[in-house]
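re: that chain from earlier
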Amino acid sequence: MKKSLSKKFKAYTAHIEFTSACNLNCIYCPVSQPDYSAQTMKAEIRDKVSCSAKMLGFKEIILNGHGETTIISGWEETVSPLLESGVKCKLISNASKLFSEHEITALSKLHTLTISCDSFSNDVYRKLRRGGSLENILGNIAAIRHVSQSRGEHGPSIGLSCVLGADNSPLLEEFILFARAIGIDFLQFCHLKDYPEPPNAGYQLMPLSTLSNSQLLTIRHTLNRAIDTNRPLISLQAGITEEINSLITTDP
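^ sequence. v structure.
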C-alpha cells in the first residue's frame, strides 16, 4: 500500500511574514517606492499562526519576509512559543531600533539573527539606510550576547547581510575587518537590484558597473581573501562573482 502524502513528505522549513512594513526607508529598497503598500497580520491571526507552526513540528522557522518583524508591538510575545519549543528560529532584522529588555531576551533565544547592514561608515550607512542607527545595532548585538552569556549560553549565530553597490564596496575590507573584530559569525553579500530613486532621496546607490577596473579588482581580491580566511564565514548571492568578473576588463 502506498503511503499517504502526509506521511511520505514533511515540510522542514516554514517562512512566516507577520508584516511587510518597515521602520527604515532604505535608498535601494522597494519599501521606499511611492506605490509600495505594506500589510500587517492582525494580532489574533499572528498568535494562531505561531501556535500552529509550533504544533506542525517544523525543524526551522524563518520569522520574516520583506518587512521588519520587530516593529510589531508585542512581537516577542507572539514568537515566544516558537522560541521556547526548541525549533530553530531565524530572523532577519535591521536591528536599528533600540530594543527593550524583553525584546533582547527574545532575540537571544534565536538560532540565527541576520542583521541588514551595508557599511560601518556612519556617513555611508546614513545615506543608504535612512532612519537607521549604527549605534543601536552595535548596542543591540552587545546586549544580546550579554543576556545569552548570563544564562550560560552561546546565544544566536549573528551575521550581517550587505547589499554591494558602488558606494560601500570600496570600503569592503574595512567592513569585513570590523565585522571580524566584533565577533560577527557570518557575512552575506547580495546583489543591488535597480529601483528608481525614491522621492525626496536626492541620492541613489549606484551599481558595481560604475566602479573603475582597479576598484573591481580590489573588491574581487578582498572577497577571495576573506573567503579563504573564512573569518567570518562568507557567502555570496548567486551571480555576484560572475558579475564582478564580467565587469573587469583586464587582469593583472
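The first helix runs from residue 5 to 8.
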